[in-house]
Amino acid sequence: MNKHVPDIAYQSITEIAPRIRSGALSPVDLVEALLLRISRLEPSLNTFLKVWGDSARTEAQTAKSEIESGRYIGPLHGIPVGLKDLIDVAGHKTTGGSKVLTDNIAKSDATVATRLKAAGAILIGKLNLVEFAFGTTGLNPFTGDVKNPWDRTRITAGSSSGSAAAVASGMIPASLGSDTGGSIRMPASVCGIAGLKPTYGRIPRTGVLDLSWSMDHVGPMARTTGDCALLMNALAGPDGGDPTSYAGPVQDFTSGLQEGLGLIKIGVPTNYFFEDSVDHEISETVLSSIDLMASNGAEIVELPMPWVEKGRAINLGVIRPEAVSAHESLLAKYADLYSPGLRKRIQSGFDIPAIDYVRAQRARQWFNHNMSESMKQVDVLITPSVPIQTPMITECTPPDGNMEAGNQLPMFTSIFDVTGQPSHSIPCGFTCGGMPIGMMITGHPYDETTVLRVGNAFEKLTDWHQRVPTDIPVLN
Amino acid sequence: MRPTNKQQFSDEAREHDLTISVDDAEDMHRFIKEVAQVYLVISSIDTTGFEPASIFMPIPSRRESQ
Asked: Which residues of chain B make contact with A243, given a CB cutoff of 8 A?
C-alpha cells in the first residue's frame, strides 16, 4: 500500500480517474493511502476538523463494486473530496470553525454535497477555516492555525485555509472552499494550488453558512485547472433552494481546456495590480508569465482602470452590514462564544446607517459598469492573486502581530467578488524564499470556460503546478 | 448620529440589544473608524444612474390544481 502513497498523493483527478475507471487503481486503495497520509501529516498541518474514515472506506468499497460491475459514473467516481466546514452534510456537524456552532448537526446535505455524492465522489471530511469564514489570514483561535505546507511558520491565508493546505500537501486531490473577498483564491495562491471562484450564482449555496449573501461564492480547489473544470461539471447548475443560483444553461466546463491561447486577448491592468506597492518578485513573476503566454499565441492589451482601486472599499461596504445581519441572532444569544476579535468586528457594524449599505450597492453597480466596459476589449484579465509575500504566522497573530497583512491580502481578489466574475488562481512561480506565487485569471461573467482554457494552457507551458511542498514530514 | 466616544457607543449598543462593555467599545471604536473610511471612499463615487441590483426576488408560485 505504502508504495502507492507518493504516486497517488500528488496526482491530479485527471490522472487518477482513468486508473480508477480501468480498475488499475481501486478507490479502496486510494482512500486507505490518503487516510494513512492524513493521519501522518495532520498533526503537523492541522487542516482537518473531522476525518470520516469509516464512511469514506464504506463509500470507497461501494464505488469499487459499482465500477467493477460496469456502473462507472464519471471522473469523480471514487475520488475523495474534503469540504470546508461551513458546508452541511446530513448527520454531521457544521461548525463554521466557531465555538458558537460546536453542536450544530446538519439535518440535510448542502446542494454541493448532494451533487458531489451523485457524481460518485467520496466525502472524506471537514476542513479547517477561519472562524465563520470572516478573515483572510487563515488563523483561528478555536480550531488552531493551519500551517502552510511550503513553510509551516507561514500562514496559509484564508478563509479556506484547510481546503488549500490539505490539497497542497497531497492529503486529498480536491476540496471545496468559499470566497467572499478572496477566500478561495488567496489560500490557493499562497499554498500553490488551483482555486476557482466561479461566477456569482453558478454554484448554489444552499446549505452553506452565509457570511455576505450578495458576495458569497462556493468553488473548487484542486491541483490543476483541469480538475477544477471536472468539479465544476458536478457542482454548477440552478437550485430551487438558492434564489440567487443562475438559472441559465450549464456547459461542459472541460470543453475548452485543450484550445490553447490562440486568439485569446489578455487584459493587463496598467494601474493598481502592478504598482510599486506590490511585491516586486510577485509582479515580475506574473508579468513574465504573461510574456510567456504572449509568446504562445495570446494577444496582450494594456488596460487603464483608474476606478478599480475603489473595489476593496465596495467589497467591505457590502460585506460589513450583510455580515452583521447574518450574525445578528447568533450574536444576541452567544456573543460570549465568539472570539473577542471577531465579535467586536461584527458588533462594530451595527452602527452602519442603511444609506451607507445602499450607497455601497449603488457603487457596486457603477463598478460593474466600468469593469464590463473595460472587459469589452479582452477575454480575460491577468493579475497577481495577492500583493504581498506570505507572512509568518507570528506576524499575523494578535496582540503583537501586524494586522495590516490581513488587510493587504485581499486587495486584488476582492475586486472580483464585487463584480461576481469568474476568477481563478494558479501557481506561476516561486519567491526566492521558496513560497508559491499565484496568478489570477479573471473572465467575463458566466464564461468560466475561457478562464479554465487559459489556465490549462499556462499549465501546459509550465510545471509550477507539479511542484511538491517542501516543509512537510518525510513519510516512509 | 454616530456615537463619538466609547460610553456613547456602549449605550447605543445596549439600545440594539447588544451587550458591549465600555472596554469593548474602545476596540470597536477603532473598527468603526475603519468602517467610516470605507464609506468615505464609497461616498466619493458619483453613482447617479446606478441603482442597486435587485436584492428582492419574487418566489414563483401558482394555485395548486384541485
From this structure: 57, 59
Residues 6 or more apart from A476 whose CB is under 8 A from it?
A: A2
For A310, which of B3, B19, B45 is closest by C-beta distance?
B45
Task: Report yes or no: A345 at the B interface, CB cutoff 8 Å.
Answer: yes
* Model pLDDT for residues A195-217, shown as the tens digit of each residue: 999 999 999 999 999 999 999 99
Distance from C-alpha of A85 to C-alpha of A343, rounded to nearest angstrom:
19
Residue A18 dihedral angles phi and psi, to the nearest 5°: -65, -30
Q: Grid coordinates standing for A8?
A: 497517488
- Fold of the domain built from segment(s) A2-466: Amidase signature (AS) enzymes (3.90.1300)
Strand partners, A449: none
pTM for the model stands at 0.94
Supply A4's cell numbers: 502507492
Which residues neighbour A62 within 8 Å (Cβ) at sequence distance 6 or greater?
A: none
Query: Is A84 a catalytic site residue?
Result: yes
Could you tell me which chain B residue has the CA closest to the CA of A331? B18
pLDDT in tens, chain B (66 residues): 556 666 776 676 666 666 666 667 777 777 888 899 999 999 999 999 887 766 566 666 788 876
Q: Which of A161, A183, A283, A289 is catalytic?
A: A183
User: How many of the other CB atoms lie within 10 Å of CB of A257?
Assistant: 22
Backbone angles phi, psi at A212, to 5 degrees: -145, 100
Q: Which of A213, A328, A348 to mutate to test the interface with B (most CBs of B within 10 A)?
A: A348
Residue A472 region by backbone torsions, left for phi larger than 0, else alpha for psi between -120 and 50, else beta: beta
Neighbours of A213 (CB within 10 A): 16
Q: Can A183 be counted among the known catalytic residues?
A: yes
